[in-house]
Amino acid sequence: MGTFDFAPLYRSTVGFDRLFSLIDQAARVEPSTTWPPYDIEKVAADEYRITMAVASFTPDEIELTQHDTTLLVTGQKKGQEGERQYLHRGIAARAFRQSFNLADHVKVTGASLENGLLTVALKREVPEALKPRRIAIGGSQTAVGQDNRPAQIKDRAQAA
Predict the structure, then answer these.
(1) Which of 51, 52, 101, 108 has the maximal Cβ count within 10 Å?
(2) How far apart are alpha carbons 154 and 148 in whole angstroms?
(3) pLDDT, tens digit, for every residue of 28-45?
(4) 67, 21, 46: which is closest to 124 by C-alpha?
(5) Taking phi first (over 0 means left), then psi (-120 to 50 degrees means alpha), and beta for anything else, what does residue 15 get?
């Protein structure tokens, strides 16, 4: 897959820098993204779940870090099993580093490790200040804060 030239789009758009960098980053394929295997699910309208298969790792060997819109999951085995002699080793115990780009306002709400599966719960929480708000028409009153009430017509309000 080739690279894209976003220069024409930069000339005619404002504030989409992050979108273009995400597209560019998605075009680059990293070889380390195949292990450990993972699923991404949409649980509800604003809730998501990432499930990673991390057999042989304990909770203290896995680290989750969210910085702005990036979730970083790293795993590093702490103890070397030098006293064991393996004839076949099929359970991978190698270190891993997996990063996920999150949308704006998506936060990690919890994580659990059960039966070799790491489950990370995510939720989109849009601040009230960024939600749509009703703007009054007429008069010099400015809309302050959030007002999502349905508009009432004065004649009907007085008749009721």
Answers:
(1) 52
(2) 18
(3) 655 555 788 899 999 888
(4) 46
(5) left
Contact 57, 77 (CB under 8 A): yes
CA distance 98 to 83: 30
The answer to whether the beta carbons of residues 147 and 134 sit under 8 Å apart is yes
End-to-end CA distance of the chain: 65
Q: Radius of gyration (Cα) for the chain, nearest Å?
A: 24
pLDDT of residue 70: 86
Calculate the CA 17 to chain-centre distance: 18
Q: Is the full-model pTM beyond 0.70?
A: no
| Cα 62 versus chain centre, distance | 18
Dihedral of alpha carbons 12, 18, 19, 22, sign: positive
CA distance 26 to 100: 11
- 139 DSSP 8-state letter: S
